Amino acid sequence: MPDVAETIVAPGAAAAAAAAHDATALMPAWQPPPPAAPPAPPDAPVIGGPTRPVRTGGAGPQAELTIESGPDAGHTHRASDSALRLGRSPDNDLILRDPATSGHHARVERRGEQFWIVDLGSTNGTLVNGEPIQEKELNHGDRITVGQNAVHFSVLGG
Question: What's the pTM value of the predicted model, to 2 decimals?
Answer without folding.
Answer: 0.62
